[in-house]
DNA sequence: ATTCCTTTGAAGTAT
DNA sequence: ATACTTCAAAGGAAT
């Protein structure tokens, strides 16, 4: 049986990479996993103050921008340094977005230019192992679903094809034979989830925020919450087609549909078409960082007075980078299993299925601002021009820059010319 | 009521 | 092959 972390032939895990961030200036010293540094707080609070103090004046706006830049520098530094510290095969994301700002020292005058495909289920779906899927489990705590006990006792299930074709003609990454090992089916098909042993028993999902106000032990709370807390989604439509509720399945678009599902089977006089349109959405499996956030968010909230998720997430991002390889490996492994389980449960599902379900103003903004084609940064055109009786060589630059810190994109044209007789 | 913000990673699309 | 985009969670803030 394939071993965890063997990596051999595991396409799914191929993208699980470790990050080693050990050389980021001030963060060189490793931040203990459970220690919320005062610097985190200070940074965050100062950033919040800076943001809130902004006024409409240009000077203040500049100050805000600078403050924002300072606050976000750590992340940018990480991004910039990422390639230097990636392990083999590490994917580098959005490098361009975080490259040095074009602001500094700009020497020129600038002329601004204005899972349930068709309801079909794989045969696997009726054979969901009892092992709690990671979706339903607080990923950190228990790790229970992924404990060695579960894996080591698993027998290779004949029900699970080594390679699942998820969509017609679409070859998804091969399911490796270790999947059954992760989610073993007890001999004799005992592994089927019964209505009483489904996702309800797991509380991956956050307790009410007030529950985090007290000193918090993730292991304790998560473990203790197994039977006491039920994810709200599970009350409604978070059901797998097998009848197995799964946190990844949520009503298509939030509360309204939730209400629809919550009304305990009351027949809703809806047009058939509308009903079809409201198929529950199968969420993406959580990646390593998301799993980490789920676990650590509560701690961070408990350790500071911050509530804003954006601020919390900044801290979590920094702490994530401060984790050791081993610590991160734990989450990468969890995430890998999440994906594997997700693939088993929703063989035909694709992340694309959820595309376009979020309306984003930023997307529109970006499209607007980039609608005037962003010329290749640094591109230069040089052409002779006729100016009266003289000729001029005009060098024309289009400089396109984008500042992620300021969420500002602009294209500038600049030129200089030399008269040639 | 809806979207934004903010993070990283996976997976999708576009070139 | 590479670059870029979208979404996953969270919840206060902004629209």
UniProtKB/TrEMBL annotation:
Gene3D superfamilies xrefs: High mobility group box domain (1.10.30.10), TCF3-CBD (Catenin binding domain) (4.10.900.10)
The protein's name: Transcription factor 7
Keyword terms: Activator, DNA-binding, Nucleus, Repressor, Transcription, Transcription regulation, Wnt signaling pathway
Major localization listed first in the record, in broad terms: nucleus
Signal peptide extent: none
Xref: PANTHER family: TRANSCRIPTION FACTOR 7, TRANSCRIPTION FACTOR 7 FAMILY MEMBER
Ranges where the record places region Disordered: 1-72, 151-187, 260-280, 352-376
Gene assigned in the entry: TCF7
Entry's localization field: Nucleus
One Pfam family it belongs to: CTNNB1_binding
GO terms of molecular function: DNA-binding transcription factor activity, RNA polymerase II-specific; RNA polymerase II cis-regulatory region sequence-specific DNA binding
Biological-process GO terms, alphabetical: canonical Wnt signaling pathway
Ranges of compositional bias, category Polar residues: 165-178
Ranges for domain HMG box: 282-350
């Amino acid at each position: 049986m394939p071993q965890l972390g063997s990596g051999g032939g595991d396409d799914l895990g191929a993208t699980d990479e470790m990050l080693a961030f050990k050389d980021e200036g001030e963060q060189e010293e490793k931040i203990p996993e459970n220690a919320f540094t005062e610097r985190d707080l200070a940074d965050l609070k100062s950033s919040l103050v800076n943001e809130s103090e902004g006024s409409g004046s240009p000077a203040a706006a500049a100050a805000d921008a600078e403050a924002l830049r300072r606050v976000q520098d750590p992340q940018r530094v990480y991004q910039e340094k990422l390639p230097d510290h990636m392990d083999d095969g590490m994917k580098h994301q959005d490098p361009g977005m975080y490259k040095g700002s074009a602001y500094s020292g700009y020497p020129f005058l600038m002329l601004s230019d204005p899972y349930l495909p068709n309801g079909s289920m794989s045969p696997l779906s009726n054979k969901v192992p009892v092992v709690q899927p990671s979706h339903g489990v607080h990923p950190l705590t228990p790790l229970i679903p992924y404990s060695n006990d579960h894996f080591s006792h698993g027998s290779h299930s004949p029900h699970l094809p080594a390679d699942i074709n998820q969509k017609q003609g679409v070859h998804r990454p091969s399911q490796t034979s270790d999947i059954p090992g992760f989610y073993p089916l007890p001999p004799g098909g005992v592994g089927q989830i019964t209505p009483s042993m489904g996702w309800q028993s797991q509380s991956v999902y956050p307790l009410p925020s007030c529950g985090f106000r007290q000193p918090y032990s993730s292991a304790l709370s998560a473990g203790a919450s197994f039977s006491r807390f039920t994810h709200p989604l599970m009350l409604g439509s978070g059901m797998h087609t097998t009848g197995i509720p799964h946190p990844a399945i949520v009503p298509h678009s939030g509360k309204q549909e939730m209400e629809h599902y919550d009304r305990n089977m009351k027949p809703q006089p809806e047009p058939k078409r509308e009903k079809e349109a409201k198929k529950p959405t199968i969420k993406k499996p959580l990646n390593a960082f998301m799993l980490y956030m789920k676990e650590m968010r509560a701690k961070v909230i408990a350790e500071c007075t911050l509530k804003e998720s954006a601020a919390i997430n900044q801290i979590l991002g920094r702490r994530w980078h401060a984790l050791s390889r081993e610590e991160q490996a734990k989450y990468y492994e969890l995430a890998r299993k999440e994906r594997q389980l997700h693939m088993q449960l929703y063989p035909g599902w694709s992340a694309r299925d959820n595309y376009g379900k979020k309306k984003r103003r930023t997307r529109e903004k970006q499209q607007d601002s980039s609608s005037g084609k962003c010329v290749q940064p640094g591109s230069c055109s040089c052409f002779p021009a006729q100016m009266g009786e003289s000729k001029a060589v005009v060098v024309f630059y289009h400089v396109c820059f984008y500042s992620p810190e300021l969420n500002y994109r602009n294209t500038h044209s600049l030129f200089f010319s030399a008269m040639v007789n």
